Amino acid sequence: MKISSALFIFALIILILIATFKFPDSFVEVESSQALQSFSEKHWLGTDSLGRDYFWRLVLALRTSFLIAFGSTFVSFFIGVGLGSWSAWSKTDSSYTLNRFFDVIQGLPSFLFLAVMMQFYISKSTLVSTIALALFCGFFHWPQLARLTRSQIFKTMQEPFVEAAISLGATPYHIFRRHLWPSVYGIWLTWFCFQIPAEIMFESTLSFLGFGIQPPQTSLGLLIQEGWKYLDDQPIFLFAPALLSFLVVISFRMLLSNLRKDFDEQKIMV
Amino acid sequence: MNKALILIGTFLLSVGISLCLILSLPGHYHQDEFQVQSSEVGLDWTRSWDNPDQSAVALIGQNFKFTMILQLVSFLIVLFFSFILSFVALNWERLIIPLEKTVAIGISAPTLFWIPLLVSTLSLKFDFFPLRFEPTLRGWILPLVALSLRPLCIGTEILLKEWKKVEFKSYFLVARSKGLSRIQVFYRHGLKNALIPFSSQMGNFLVQSLMGSVLVESLFSFPGIGNLFVQSLQNRDLPIVLYLTLLFTFLMMIVHATIEIIQKFLEPRGESSRT
């Protein structure tokens, strides 16, 4: 299962790369004469109301969703790891204050704030709105990783090799790089597999409600929103993006559960 | 005390962010019809800018009761069915694995995947339920199912996991050897242990459910505050957006506080399992 889900994600990434070279402007050509065609050899999933090939629109939508999901996950990762490590390392009141700060950020209604924040950017260019969405999602979704990093580093800091490194005069950066962060790699990897599908769904929901990516750009949420209008006549427009999002989410979850099992086995062996 | 400070801090930060963001939006909407619209009503933050005859609070009040009913009934459904499902699986052991698999798929399936599936099957194909919300019993069913299905799966999964933990304890075997049925043992000895993670997850569920109601309500045109938020933001009716953001923040604080109290009651030894 682990290999099949990893292969599926790999195949999607290959498709996204092909789409990037095939459509350098990120738009599928409009051919009004070909509107609402059924499946054919030329158009694998038919065409939409403007005659655009639906299969490639789906791949481009997936690319946008992946870009935002990966971008926001990386933003969350850097903030979470930075603050989590700082919180674990500092032995003063700032550690306690930072931990409380994680709680406060985690309790914020991020969805509402993002919907309002995106009002400032949805009229801007595609690139700006995509970057803004990825950054804002990242800014709100790091506290869980910060907590996980903090607690794991706390545990590792009790180990004698860390005490030895400190007493030998190693710099904090060296200690983190050589001794502390390697102990959190497993947690980071599982967090990535958990966070990326969560961000894909978060972005899809925002775009579906009209607060995320705006037409003519596409994302999975936007395609589902379009498909909702054609539910009676062309159910494929709704089910194709919905099924794709389901498959992506479930593939990441399968990877996650397998990774967890692997790490648990490693712990038992140690 | 710490928890109270965190909750108050979260609330104050949320209020600060909401005020900063929403009060600066009129400056951003400087062109088009918005200027005409706002100059007509003179940026009156007590009234809806879409319906200047109606006060913002009254409009939110009308929608608030629908959302509260939806949330409450959905919570009761989750509570009731997660216990029933886990008890049924306990009683007939061969059901445990299929139930676990179904529940895992239910947790992974995104809302935007299975709501269309539900609607196209039950509403369009068989015409059991209306596609848009109607104030009848049939009209309530689809929004309720859409809101409660995922939390129900999460709740059932937690209960099954907790029951499994209890199953290998010595007191479970002693109670079984004394003649108690499996359900009786779980009810007497496993329930309180299971309630601690369950209540913490239910707290998360309530918070997510408040946010999830925005999607579900707008999908089914449900006359609740979630749908009102989406429509108000799309129509640039900022007083409603402002008050709704504050209301959501306040509701979230209430939910967090309630769960902390419940956790303290269930786990009096110290820190709750939420943090």
State the gist of this model.
The complex is a heterodimer of chains A (270) and B (275). With 270 residues, chain A is mostly helical.
- Biggest interface found: A-B, 38 and 46 residues
Task: Please write the CATH class name of chain A.
Answer: Mainly Alpha
Distance between the termini of chain B: 15 Å
What average pLDDT do the residues of chain B reach? 81
The run of helices and strands of chain B is HHHHHHHHHH
List the helices and strands of chain A in order: HHHHHHHHHHH
Radius of gyration of chain B, taken over Cα atoms and rounded to an integer in Å: 23 Å
Strand runs of chain A, count: 0
- Low-pLDDT residue spans of chain B: none
CATH architecture level-2 label of chain B: Orthogonal Bundle
CATH architecture designation of chain A = Orthogonal Bundle
Q: Give the CATH level 1 class of chain B.
A: Mainly Alpha
User: What is the CATH homologous superfamily assignment of chain B?
Assistant: MetI-like
Q: Let me know the number of strands of chain B.
A: 0
Q: Biggest β-sheet of chain B, characterized? A: none
Mean pLDDT level of chain A: 84
User: Helix/strand/pairing class of chain B, anyone?
Assistant: mainly alpha
CA-based gyration radius of chain A: 22 Å
User: Structural class of the secondary structure composition of chain A?
Assistant: mainly alpha
Spans of chain A of at least 5 consecutive residues whose pLDDT stays below 50 are: none
Describe the global form of chain B. Answer: globular
